[in-house]
């Protein structure tokens, strides 16, 4: 329990540091995107003095507050879930943009990472168990070759081959735009159909990492005394392979899996761009191009919270999987 409180305190401090950096870093950049946004609105037509003051207050222009007063107002707004108003998509709130797009990124990324993690660990277990066999000789260099290809280039190859040449899959969007968004069977099938190529890109580009780490860890674990003891007790090969060797060999991949889950929000930026897939990564690109600081801050905060939350879960899972860690931390 003491260890749990220490970890919670550590992650709370990390969240505070992330939020603080999220506030100060955009303000160090040159220019005033809020003033530029106000100028663009004035070009469309005259703005009344009352409307201009309201916009200045919403964008934080010409405020007499010191930087520290703005900082504490920013913290207060964050605690209330107020990320501000988007400059590029004015007057849409940042929370609405993030809520609309993040669900696409989470579904695509989580499914692809889970498939990649499961397949990579299973391949690594089999390759280590049958070390030197044909599957170990062929699969290892083949997957390593795929992982060496930049994933955005791999996405272009997959899009050209399966989308343009064979015309098996669509080129863009996350669903058939002629359908209404909802939980209908037609929409769900369309969304799955449009997500196949982006998911395939993520799986092929990341499966080799899981596989090789699992294989090397499995080879080391197979030489441990408790594995030899399990063999001596006459346990079945499947039980020794999964319950004794694989359970301990998978521990290094647990932390990597948590990092992969945490980086889903911002880790597939180029994939979403190549496939024009709606998601938080594509929104991040638009925010950078338009100097949309409120949207940038909101996305960066979501990414930081996702990574920290995933690492915290990984700490808990690691303790549950490895009894040695529980004993050492309770001593």
Key terms for this structure?
single chain; 331 residues; mainly alpha; MetI-like fold; 2 domains; 16 helices; 78% helix; MetI-like; transmembrane
Write up what this structure looks like.
With 331 residues, this protein is mainly α. The chain has two domains: 2-79, no CATH class; 95-325, MetI-like (MetI-like fold), CATH 1.10.3720. The chain is 78% helix and 0% strand. It has helices spanning 2-28, 33-44, 49-59, 67-79, 94-129, 134-148, 151-165, 185-222, 225-232, 237-249, 251-262, 264-267, 269-274, 280-289, 293-321, 323-330. The longest helix has 38 residues, at 185-222. The mean pLDDT is 76.
Q: Could you state the oligomeric state of the chains shown?
A: single chain
Overall CATH class of the largest domain: Mainly Alpha
Tell me how many strands there are: 0
Q: Strand-and-helix sequence, N→C? A: HHHHHHHHHHHHHHHH
Gyration radius, to the nearest Å? 25 Å
- Based on the structure given, which CATH architecture of the largest domain is correct? Orthogonal Bundle
Number of domains: 2
Shape: globular
